[in-house]
Amino acid sequence: MITILLRGLAFMAVNIPRVARATIESNEAIRGLQDRADTLSDAMREIWNPNILPFLMGTLITFIGISSLLAWAIRFKARDTHFLYMGCFILLFGLRIIAGNYLMRVSGMVSPMVLLWTESLISYYLTIFSILFVTCFTGWGWKRSLMWFLILQACYSAGATINDIRMETPYYSGVPLNNLFAIGGTLLVLANLFQSHIRMNHEIRAIGIGFGIFAVSIVLANLAEIHLIPEAFSQEQAAFFICLCILIYVAIHYSKVTETNLRNMTRDLETARNIQDAILPQSIPSCGEGRITARYIPMTKVGGDFFDFQQVDDDHVGILVADVSGHGIPAALIASMVKIAFISEFSNAGRPEALLSGMNHTLTGQLNNEYITAIYLFIDLKTGEISFSIAGHPPPILIHTGSPVPTTVSPGGIPLGIRKDVRFPSGKISIAHGDRLLIYTDGLTELADSHGEQFGTARLSKIMHEAAELTIEKAADRILRAAVEWAGKKKREGFDDDLTFILIHT
Description:
The protein is α+β, with helices and mostly antiparallel strands and 506 residues long. The chain has helices spanning 2-47, 52-74, 81-99, 102-106, 112-138, 145-167, 175-193, 202-225, 236-279, 328-344, 352-363, 442-445, 457-466, 472-487; strands at residues 291-297, 305-313, 316-324, 372-380, 385-391, 397-399, 407-408, 426-430, 436-440, 499-505.
């Protein structure tokens, strides 16, 4: 018994110090872990600054703004200006968040004064791009109120910028006034978004909701900035992010709708062009030993100029050249009516005045306030006699063989389609072998250069005389090339008016 007791005492004497040392080491380890946890917690609190989330949001918004501008640049030909204005608005808003963020100012990457100048300048111009974006969908608003506010805002922004630079102090021109402009612009946009005369389509409703949310935050933020309400009420960045998501959706949806409409319009233009090609003569009539050539270049894909022939027999041919006022599809539709009216007057092919009078009687009252200038010639290839009648159209130019002086006909008459009881002036001219006759629309002679000087009949006559020794096709190409060069065009498209002429060589 005593032996067992002694052994127990010996065991305790040996192990108690070990247990004590283990306990001490364990406690020290626990304290070390606690210290590390406290250090990590302090580090996390130091890293996760309340300014980090706004900084990240500003960076994201800036990236979205740049992406919108890139989308506009890629789709530049589609004229998606809403992407341009939206991109500028978003980009500036994101940069303003970054410039005003505390982390950016203490980072040392950019001078605090530069950041303050950036923030102040953006604040002056931010409202301008938001209004421009909204006008893409609503127009200039009730009694052009958005336009007048935009002018006022632009004048204030420019004046404030100049004054700040002069005083070398950002925001010198006064924070309250800029805040009032921001509040006023926001409320004006909302008022125009919900005007009764605006068609409340899908895009307008979505923009109204987005700007409604953002407008409340803008008003509260600007009131807080001028210390009229507590800072806690300002949630501008969160509201803008919600508005941003809605604006991106609207911009993409609107772009898709615009692209669909553009495709449909392009298809309709191609159809109209095909129809117009069909109503124009498919071949040039024979003219004995003479030759006839024509050139036709519409201002757009379709035009209001029209020409046609009536081959009565081998020795007689009628030529009509007409010019519809206006351009594009409406003028092309009227040109098709001219075609029908011309065909219906085939029985009067040898009587120019009667033919134009008959066409005028058919077209008057059908042109929706438009009118048509026209000239009709009936050529007797045997005798070389040309009978003609003019309805307010430029007179033809006749170049005789070996004569540098052109023969012109006095203009006269009023256009077709104005009133029915009209007599059109008529006359006769004679042509000989080798003479050339030019019939044209005013799109040729009124073609202006970069200084506004017109091509004119004198220059046209001179070019005809210089090209007298060329074949009729080359002479026509020479006239067209001279016109293109005069207008400073590199291609045969993009003129300010439809261009048509017919050159006849006997």
